[in-house]
Design a protein that fits this description.
With 222 residues, this protein is an alpha/beta fold. Helix content is 43%, strand content 18%. The strands form two sheets. The protein has a four-stranded mixed beta sheet with strand order 1-2-3-5, with helices on one face. Strands 4-6 form a two-stranded parallel ribbon. Helix 3 packs antiparallel against helix 4. The longest helix has 19 residues. The N and C termini lie far apart (52 Å).
């Protein structure tokens, strides 16, 4: 247990980059990594090690020929509804007796919403694209997005200079895909307890997010 505050590996990378490139402000953007972890981890010296690895690669790339990002800026923003799996009042009443205090807290929250007839059946999800006319496109997805969405975008939009980031505009929970939902476990199910969400999504969310990514990208390319 530690009470020290730190920017973790990204913070160590930032400090090393700025030290080696005077006058530079190093910024960190987290991509689709909801189900990814550095390994080994959980010690300060390991965060320093991973930060050094990241900084070394950034400094290497910074020495290669770079292409400027210029031109007219276009943006598109859209929200979509992501459906939760069916849930009932009875299951949350049973959770009130659970030994997990966080599950009990989530159950009380859900039962209060049931009493108000506001039980959540869907979640409003943000998808945004920001495109430089002569440069590249930044795709911003809300939540802790699993890596599959970034890998899918690389295949689907091959030839595009595209970066797909998670944790953008809203972070209300993990955003799994069908693979993760079938696996179950923390990102798909257990994490929703701590985020105060009713439970897992349905597999329908994957094509909905992918379709919306296509739509916002098409809008900024017009």
């Amino acid at each position: 247990e530690t009470f020290r505050l730190s920017g973790d590996y990204a913070g160590f990378a930032q400090a090393e980059i700025e030290q080696n490139l005077p006058g530079t402000t190093a910024l960190f953007v987290q991509l689709c990594a909801g189900d990814q972890n550095p390994n080994p981890r959980s010690k300060l010296e390991l965060a320093e090690q991973h930060g050094h690895s990241l900084a070394t690669e950034v400094l290497r790339v910074a020495k290669t020929p770079m292409q400027p990002v210029t031109g007219r800026l276009r943006t598109a923003y859209q929200t979509i509804d992501l459906p939760f799996a069916p849930h009932t009042r009875d299951q949350f009443e049973r959770d009130l007796q659970d030994s997990n205090k966080f599950k009990v807290s989530r159950a009380r929250l859900m039962l209060d919403l049931y009493d108000k007839r506001q039980e959540p059946r869907k979640f409003q999800y943000p998808v945004q694209a920001i495109r430089f006319q002569k440069g590249f496109t930044f795709m911003a997805l809300g939540g802790e997005v699993v890596v599959d969405y970034g890998l899918w975008a690389e295949r689907e939009f091959a030839g595009e200079r595209l970066m797909v980031a998670g944790y953008s505009n809203d972070v209300a929970c993990y955003i799994p895909n069908a693979r993760i939902l079938r696996e179950g476990g923390y990102e798909a199910v257990d994490s929703m307890i701590y985020y105060g969400q009713p439970g897992p999504f349905t597999e329908e969310i994957e094509p909905r997010i992918q379709d919306t990514m296509k739509q916002v990208l098409a809008r900024v390319k017009k």
